[in-house]
Design goal:
It is globular, with a radius of gyration of 11 Å. The chain has strands at 2-5, 10-13, 35-41, 44-49, 57-59, 65-67, 72-76. The chain is an all-beta fold. The strands form 2 sheets. The protein has a 4-stranded antiparallel beta sheet with strand order 4-3-2-6, with no helix packed on it. A 3-stranded antiparallel beta sheet has the order 1-7-5, with no helix packed on it. The chain has one domain (2-76): RNA polymerase II/Efflux pump adaptor protein, barrel-sandwich hybrid domain (OB fold (Dihydrolipoamide Acetyltransferase, E2P), Beta Barrel), CATH 2.40.50.
Amino acid sequence: MAQILSPLPGTFYRSASPDQPPYKADGDAVSAGDVIGLIEVMKSFHEVKAESAGTNIRFLADNEDPVMAGAPLADLD
């Protein structure tokens, strides 16, 4: 099991915009380099990418949650 951590402090978003589906849903498979969400810092958006592959992702942070740098965003099996 691996964790995907927030690279920056800011607001976590699971999709590119409110009218689009999330990048990944709980239970989805993830490949290394897949975007799993965005962190907004002062109106600038930064992609959060998985560093490793896994068969099951479980999000620990909800959409629009404030997060600190290094905070766990998701668990990856």
